[in-house]
UniProtKB/TrEMBL annotation:
Pfam families: ACPS (PF01648). InterPro entries: 4-PPantetheinyl_Trfase_dom, 4-PPantetheinyl_Trfase_dom_sf. Signal peptide: none annotated. One of its GO terms (molecular function) is transferase activity. Residues 2-98 form the 4'-phosphopantetheinyl transferase domain. The keyword Mitochondrion does not apply. This is 4'-phosphopantetheinyl transferase superfamily protein.
Amino acid sequence: MLGNDIVDLTLAKVQSNWKRKGYLDKIFTDDEQNNILKSNNPDLMVWIFWSMKEAAYKIHNRKTGIRNFAPKSLSCTIHSSTYGEVNVEGDLYFTKTEISLKYIHSVSSPVFSHLDKITINIYEAPDNVFDYKSTEPGCVSHHGRYLALVY
């Protein structure tokens, strides 16, 4: 199983005010909040953690059949600038994150060695208007101008 999430950084900046009172407390664990607030780029760190949580949740949801996105119950750990893991109720999902100037994209797998074998296709509008379902992706994510398909 695969999960993925993409965040259009331009749209996120306009749509979300993560600095408002209570936002971090609702979404992030104490450790994640400390990492965000101590980061050289807190905006970026918020969306890195968010994309990791979303990518792992997509696998966990398919595995359990339970649709309950409670982001604070998903605990992220970053091991390097690229790799991390998300613990969801004792289940561990490994992540690989790409950071660009325009977007953040995370993929997730329950098997670490599978991360480097995932094929990733990212499209920017208007180049993402096509019948992507016919390509049978393992997971689909879209936000703003971006569509991310993983196989």
